[in-house]
Design a protein that fits this description.
By secondary structure, this protein is mostly helical. It is about 70% helix and about 0% strand.
Length: about 100
């Protein structure tokens, strides 16, 4: 049973890594500069009540953006993030998540 769980975890990691590799980092960078940097900062470390995105992996960022896009309340800034994420496509989210994870390690 442990072997099967290890295999599943390994496949999930490989799929996540290939998703980041398939992303358009330049497109993610442009989106971040236009829509995210004002609140999360140019270096992704957050500002005032806006949290840091630095150190987050692409899967985490992607999951949060999808939750916001779907209108889910995730935290105290959900009311600000939901409209920002509402028009993001799956490709936008992949590109943005990959940029954040790669740039703000």
């Amino acid at each position: 049973m442990n072997r099967a769980m290890g295999f599943v975890a390994g496949v999930a990691l490989m799929l996540g890594a290939s998703n980041v590799q398939a992303a358009d980092i330049s497109a993610g960078e442009a989106m971040y500069a236009q829509a995210c940097a004002q609140c999360h900062g140019r270096t992704g470390r957050g500002m005032a009540s806006f949290p840091s995105v630095s150190g987050q992996d692409a899967e985490y960022i992607e999951a949060r953006l999808i939750q916001y896009r779907e209108g889910e309340q995730v935290g105290p800034n959900s009311a600000l993030m939901i409209p920002v994420a509402a028009d993001l496509s799956d490709e936008n989210i992949t590109d943005l998540s990959a940029f954040i994870a790669k740039t703000f390690q």
